[in-house]
Amino acid sequence: MRRYTYYIYMAKKTLFLLLCLLPLTSCLEKTPQDAILEDEAMTSLSGAEQIVTGIYTAYMGSGLYSGSLTLTPDIQSDLVLAVEGNSGADSQVYQWNFHSTESRFESVYAGLYTVIGRCNFYLDQVEALRKKMTNDADIKTLDIYTGEVYCARGLAYSELIKCFCEAYDTDKAEQQLGVVLRLSYFKEEPVTRANLKDSYKQVIADLERAIELLDEELDEYDAAFFTRAAAQAVRARVALFMKDWSTAISYATELIKNEAFLLSSAAYNVGDGMNEIDYLWAYDSGYEVIWRVGYTATSYGGALGQNFLNFTTDFVNYYPDFVPAQWVLNLYGSGDARYNAYFANLQTGYPHQLSWPLLIKYYGNQSLISYNIFHVNMPKPIRLAEQYLIRAEAYCNQGEYSKASADLNTLRASRYATGGSTVTVGADNWLDVIEQERVRELYMEGFRLNDLKRWGKGFERTPQASVQQEGSKLKIDAKDPRFVWPIPKHEIEAPGSQVQPNESNKY
Predict the structure, then answer these.
(1) For residues 179 and 261, what is the distance between their CA atoms, to the nearest angstrom?
(2) Which of 76, 83, 80, 77 is closest to 467 using CA atoms?
(3) What does the pLDDT look like over 169-200, one tens digit per residue?
(4) Which residue in 53, 45, 68 sits closest to 143, CA to CA?
(5) What is the pTM of this model?
(6) Range list of β-strands (E), 391-431
(7) Which of the 8 DSSP states describes residue 28?
(8) CA–CA dist 165, 502 (Å, integer)
(9) For residue 34, which of 24, 19, 23, 47 has the smallest C-alpha distance?
(10) In whole numbers, what is the pLDDT of the chain averaged over residues?
(11) CA-CA distances (angstroms) from residue 115 to 58, 154, 478?
(12) CA dist., res. 286 & res. 277, Å (int)
């Protein structure tokens, strides 16, 4: 059975990586190169595996977790401030002065539909291949691949919804705009947006099919391929976003009880002066990692740390585009191991000589740095820590505050070498406590903008020393339509497109 053969087959150079190359017109169209592969790609188990390889390769793109999908939502929010003299990267998003041609939004939209296109290419043909197979072990392996593909597609659609749709309203979901649901690679389908209820219904169907096909025995930490646990974790996240509290609790509990995973602990040292929290971010490895985007020295994605360090400018000084906001730094208590794992007080090379706690969470995977690959970390989009936060928030919404407090304190205890202080949530303070803990734990992992959107909260930035003026003093109302990203202009204007714009497309 395949386990970490991922690291071997990710390095293969095959024509299957041409699948769904992005055209100049629309992310939803096929390209001329596809015709080369369509007749032969799914004639064998090895052919199916190579298509699955292509799906994971698509998830490595810098438009997704190794770049825009992870960083852009948080840069747009109140978590960072732009440094005076910065390179200008992400300036329009930071200043909330963006349009439907913003490249960051386009890269996320295109990258996710690339994943979906490759999944559909596989799913359109897998049943025909399965009927031809006679070896039970091969059929079982194919079923596992199919489960991975359903998980990959469900995750991609959930991220599209998170970025390009309004927060889910239980009473209005059938009237809210969802996403374009493409469920076939070969069949012609209308290019129009489903409603939000049906969009989430498709996500749930994909994830539940993945859970059905994937074997719990394959669950393991640091997995670079989708497992049953990964599908359950995304299902819990989706339930939270849909305000389905009991389902969120149920799936999060499955993960918390799963013996394959443990919270990384500040109380355990792994050598070289590192505890498990340090190691989680220095080497992208930990017992709590349910799914990570796997890299090797010859196959890796974007540089998550570039915006926050830029030490390759002269290999002497740091030239960050953004620095952590002071209010974020103030959230961490004395002894919280996340602070030292995420931040370090470093001197910048700018004329103003700002010395500030810079973000080192993405300083770079130490193994890759030994190959002179800098600022590159393996994204870890699905971690056990998030499941504790999901369950705690869902408990609060059901009024089960003692259970929520227990989950928050379990998470906090793992982040302090000596256990840390405890928190108690109740009807009056639970949202503030949950919000603060999500910032502490998930800082710059792409959750903040959507959290504010689904909570119905705006934000205000307060300038600090040596930050640029534009955008650093900013107040955004909770109802601002730009919490929802605009649909890329080329998608709306593509021939035959019936894709409806968002209100943010007017800007």
Answers:
(1) 33
(2) 83
(3) 999 999 999 999 999 999 988 899 999 999 99
(4) 45
(5) 0.92
(6) none
(7) T
(8) 8
(9) 19
(10) 91
(11) 6, 10, 31
(12) 8
